[in-house]
Write a structure and sequence with these properties.
The protein has no helices and 15 strands. The protein is mainly beta. It is globular and about 50 Å long. The relative contact order is 0.20.
């Protein structure tokens, strides 16, 4: 499988629609980042699950997982070369002819970009600015590069539709995911079966870049985000 390419700044509102979001491998944590452990719930009804039930920890088995304090407090996660994420595209929310995922399921290297939405905007503090027990909407983009396709595939939970591949000019009916700060060093990010996720093909040629909505799906998932060092998350 092709190495995941993932940008460390794609969550920031400063990324303007129409500019190429270069999907570079998530950079190792810097002094302004907070390493975390991501653990998927892997419920039987979930359409997005881990590869083995085991947590993904920053800098373990090529995983990158951290809260980027220098980029609006975004969660940035890449499964790396040794781990994957599983996806099931079997619950189309549109007419069958309008759901065009080329595969019923995937088990691929992948990653999340996610952050808090407060009043429709990304606040400067992101996850770290939330209070304990606070629950908010969350913007989430899941990147799925494939060896078999030069384009990038993205699963978007984004009601605003203003950033990167999720910010397509027309089409798409995705809604936001949810986030709750459970404790000073722990958050839960999830979507239920009622949330809507757009599957978007992001194709970049020498002449132009095109985003194509390949359908809207029910893609429930849930995972916890746990700070590796409790001192990092007072």
């Amino acid at each position: 499988m092709r190495q995941l390419f993932l940008t460390a700044i794609a969550i920031a509102a400063a990324l303007v629609a129409g500019g190429r979001v270069t999907d570079l491998a998530a950079a190792p944590a810097s002094p302004r980042t907070i390493p975390v452990i991501i653990t998927f719930a892997d419920l039987p009804s979930d359409k997005i699950q881990s590869d083995s039930g085991q947590p993904y920890q920053d800098r373990v088995n090529d995983v990158n997982a951290y809260i980027d304090a220098s980029n609006h407090g975004a969660l940035i996660f890449s499964s790396g070369r040794s781990r994957t994420i599983q996806f099931l595209f079997d619950d189309c929310l549109l007419a069958p002819a309008d759901c065009n995922a080329p595969w019923p399921s995937l088990n691929e290297q992948s990653g999340f970009l996610a952050n808090v939405l407060r009043g429709g905007v990304v606040p400067g503090g992101g996850l770290m600015a939330m209070t304990v027990n606070e629950e908010l909407a969350a913007w989430a983009k899941i990147n799925i590069p494939l060896d078999s396709d030069p384009a990038f595939w993205n699963v978007c939970f984004d009601s605003r539709k203003v950033v990167g591949p999720c910010g397509i000019a027309s089409g798409g009916t995705s809604t936001d995911a949810r986030i709750r700060r459970d404790a000073p060093g722990q958050w839960t990010i999830w979507a239920t079966s009622t949330e809507r996720a757009d599957l978007i093909r992001d194709s970049d040629t020498r002449k132009n870049r095109t985003f194509t909505v390949m359908g809207t799906y029910s893609m429930p998932f849930s995972f916890t985000v746990q700070c590796v060092n409790s001192a990092d998350c007072p």
